[in-house]
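Hello Y.,

Per our agreement to keep a running log of every chain we model this quarter, I'm adding this entry. I've kept the format consistent with earlier entries: sequence first, then predicted structure.
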Amino acid sequence: MDWTHRLRLRHLQILVSLAETQNVSRSAERLHMTQPALSKWLKDLEADIGTSLFERHARGLRPTRACEVLLDHARRIGVDLDRARDEMSMLLAGSTGYLAIGGSGATIASTVPAAVLALLEAMPGARVDIVEGTMDQLMERLDRNELDIAVGRSQPQYLTRHVECEELYAEPLHFVARKDHPLHQLEALGWDDLYRYRWVVFSHDTPVRHLINEELRLARRSLPVDALQSNSVFASFSLLSTSDLLTIASERSIAMYERMGTLKRLPIRFSSAPPVMMYWRRDVSRSAAVAMALHCLRSLTAAP
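Predicted structure for the entry above:
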């Protein structure tokens, strides 16, 4: 008989606990089981599968590669059940759908909020969670089914067989400063002028930072050694609003702050930038809220 037919949710919870504590005694206490019963269950499961799930050593347990594969599915099932519980509660409370959407610095201040507002206009009873993060963080959460949609610059290295993607629009990057920054008074602006002020940049593992590094390489320049790092576009813009700091941001993010009269782009534009994409899981594309959100995002592809 297939060993998966004997697995229950409780068994997956036991497996996750063992991986987290890496100790049979502590997991038995956490799960209100006896240690012999837990040890026997694990031994029987390993016998059914035909491989060891943990390496035994003096300090406890260490998950094997086989265990890591099984844990990945166990955690995803746990997330799916949590979401099913939450969506059923919202449905009983009158919700017409649920959406968890994430945006990177390129979209969290512009495209994602606009899409959510359009969704709520079409589905007033929908419930929405909005998450800000770097694309690697968002794609990991999408893979774990903690997000329905992630929106940000192209990240092909994170694509899996579970994920669909679609290009939304191309969008350049610009240097930006507060509206009354001294640099706006110059008749001609060059790289040397930018280096007179401190920069705020995204961390080294983000698409925008890779673009900055490439642009500087082409200009035979390097990143200022005193540059600040911030992965929050809101934090970066807040720093700029009351200082002479500079940052690099997407055109749509800057446009909103320019309309508010707080920031203004500088006349140095990046030569290229990856397109903005939307990513979603294949297995949730039939959800009414997700389908409507994808439609709303497609409708925002025109220039700001």
